[in-house]
Amino acid sequence: MKILNQRLSLFLLAILDLFLITSCKKDKLLNELEVFKGKYTWQYTMYREHWWSTTTLTRPASNSNYTAEIEFNNEGRIIFYINGQEIHKTGYSIENQETSNNGKTIWIKVDPIKENSKNLDLNDDVDFTITNDTLTVDNFPGTSYDEELFGTHYFTRNQ
Question: What is this structure's pTM?
């Protein structure tokens, strides 16, 4: 009887966890924000060697020993990949957004529901900017995954 009660308790706990995970507040990309939907591959990073430097340097993604991708899916989730393997998946809420360049550039600040996982440590807020098919982000794969890499990371939409 004790084993049956333990199994029932575990089953109910699993159902509760599933409910909590699927019921978290998350935004979906609607209207003008639909342009973010899709999967993007890291191409290069622009950075300054020192904070006081006025010279911007470019580091190709091919100089790293890994590849990085970001996906905004239809279910209101952002998925982060390293070497083609999913390392983090989270819902999010959109905290702020701006449109510029006659609607060609859109910036969003998102608050990820799940900031940390075994392989990734996101900031409280993550900024994404899209212009045409180029997505920029400051903290992936940089400081959130590879502490040696800093700057603005440029991703292009997969075809």
Answer: 0.77
